[in-house]
Amino acid sequence: MKKKSTWLPAVVAPVVVAGAVAAPLAASAATPSPATTGSHPTAAQVLASVAHSDTLSYSGRISQTSDLGLPSLPSTSGSSGASSAQSGASDVLDLLTASHEARVYVDGRSKARVQVLDQLAERDVIRNGRDVWTWDSKADKAVHVTLPSSAAAANGTDTGSASPADIAARAIAGITPSTRVGTPTTTSVAGHAAWQVRLTPKSSSTLVHDVVIAIDKSTGLPLSARIDARGQSTAAVSVRFSALSYGPPKASLFDFTPPSDAKVTTKDLSDAAEHSSTAKHPGLVAPGDVRASGAPTPSVQGDGWSSIVTLPAGTFPKRQLDADGSQLFGQLTKAVDGGRAVQTSLVSILITDDGRVLAGAVPVSALEAAAE
After folding, report:
1. Among 125, 205, 264, 345, which is most exposed with the fewest C-beta within 10 angstroms?
2. How would DSSP label each residue in 134-158?
């Protein structure tokens, strides 16, 4: 008999907070009008001002809270019998169920650092030009990515973190006829005057109630972002600056050298083919560790806030769960017809028996219908 519980797959979890809610809307997004000055700007002008904030330099502290209805699980990191899949999933659940503080340093488009401080541990994402490092002090692991030359002019603040800028950018991309855009109101975040804009889905079939963004009146920098779920009094996701100062951070903050005993993975994206190697520092190639690149291609059903993203059969093979994460999988999933699923307050995910993964800001019943 299958257990009845809930689960959020580690393979999908990193996109839930930052992009799963609004990213599917980008294909039909409308372009806001250019920002103009004035004491009473339109919502389009306020939102468009974000585009001018990618050249800013600043330092700050960000507070993040989540209430997605996920269970708080005992950490498996310290257990000698815990598999890497179990430990990784627990780490993801910790990010989505606990409050976190992060330090953020940005110097223009190509230098950024996000530093998450945990008890007796540190996690970093650092970009300096074409070099990107991620560092986990608890696991003593680092990843070094060399970006292609075409990325030199890209916005350096897109570090994969769930910062106000990340959430706001995806919400702005989702302005379509499916969304009501409220009139800007005034607020203050971290001592900075800001315009606040509320985006509300017109559809009643989505789990999202609204997205509320505060944008610095002077610079266009997103200062806070909140996603509210239907029928929930507390925010499902809230990210905001608790402190912010403008000006270039110290250049040394964007330099990183892993400890000599750290396990380092290197990925060179500067070539046509991606090469990946894992070894002890300084990144020697281990035999058989070069992997071919290529991720599953998703398809999208529906549109707007009710759209559903589907990854093809075999994306999440059952044998992988049996080998690496069967215990955690059994504890956290609930059985549904044709697979197992989770419904959080903000997003649902269905893994079918044939290994398809369906996700969207809709109830599980909508994913089941789409799978059929």
Report:
1. 205
2. EEETTTTEEEEEE--GGGGGS-TT-
Name the residue with tokens 């600056």: 241
- Name residues whose C-beta falls within 8 Å of residue 79's C-beta, 6 or more positions apart in sequence: none
Q: pLDDT category, 327, cuts 50, 70, 90?
A: low
pLDDT for the residue 271: 54
Residue 128's identity, in one-letter code, is N
d(CA 257, CA 50) in angstroms, rounded, equals 33
Q: Is 68 helix (H, G, I), strand (E, B) or coil?
A: coil
Q: Can you read off the two tokens belonging to residue 117?
A: 């401080």
- Beta strand 357-360 with 348-352 is antiparallel
**Residue 51 gets which letter from DSSP?**
G
Residues 22, 199: Cα–Cα separation, whole Å = 11
Residue 166 pLDDT: 67
248, amino acid identity: P
| Radius of gyration (C-alpha) of the chain in whole angstroms | 21
Q: Diameter of the chain by CA atoms?
A: 64
Give kind and range of the element (H or E) at residue 267.
strand 263-268
Residue 26 neighbours by CB distance under 10 Å: 15
More confident site: 275 or 135: 135
Shortest CA distance to 228 belongs to which of 308, 305, 341?
Answer: 305
Nearest by Cα to 254 from 112, 54, 116:
112
The arithmetic mean of pLDDT across residues 42-61, rounded, is 89
Residues 173-186 pLDDT 10s: 667 678 999 999 99
361 near 206, Cβ under 8 Å? yes
Task: Report CA dihedral (201, 203, 206, 208) to the nearest 10 degrees.
Answer: 20
What is d(CA 331, CA 4) in angstroms, rounded to the nearest whole number? 8
Residue 204: both structure tokens together: 């009643």
CA distances for 118 relative to 67, 72, 98, 106, 334, angstroms: 19, 16, 11, 21, 31
pLDDT at 3: 34
Which residues fall within 8 angstroms of residue 327, CB to CB, at 6 or more apart? 86
